[in-house]
Amino acid sequence: MSSLGKKRLEVALAIATCAIGSGGASAAPTPGVEVPKQVILTASDVAMYTSIWKIYFQEDLSSKQVIEMLAELGLVTAAAAGTAYIVSKATTAILCEITDWLGPMGWGVAAAIAGSITGLFGAAWAVYCDYLYCQKELQPA
To answer: 0.85 cut: is pTM over it?
Structure first.
């Protein structure tokens, strides 16, 4: 298996692990405290993004680098992605609050939603990192 193939496998496992963890944490009923739980899950997502970056580039992602990448992508893209992320987390919090009252079936729905959102954003970030890695590898030394 090539180096890129190994990186992609590691990233897929990291995303799956975070998505399962996020889904499991969201499944636990916490009536009235969904927003703080979403803040913790957001921190977990950020850790997933930094680990994906580290898998590809063997370096820690600093806040300066994040800002530079967002500027490179364009402010409109960054604003759209940020807004989509915030809306998805707010929607998840609201849905989890509602599903808390539905019992185990509702908790399962909350877990599926949260895990899917984490997986989707993780996959999008992985595609971006993969693109950057491939571009870096193609550049002559």
So the answer is: no
Cβ atoms within 10 Å, residue 43: 10
Specify the residue for token string 């405290």. 33
- % of the chain with per-residue pLDDT over 90: 17
**Res 64: pLDDT:** 60
∠ Cα 59 124 6 (to 5°): 55
How many angstroms separate the CA atoms of 45 and 90, rounded?
Answer: 15
The residue among 87, 90, 123, 112 whose CA lies nearest residue 25 is: 112
Kindly report the backbone phi and psi dihedral angles of residue 139, in degrees, each rounded to the nearest multiple of 5, phi listed first: -70, 135
Provide the CB-side half-sphere exposure for 15 (13 A, CA). Answer: 20
pLDDT, position 90 = 75
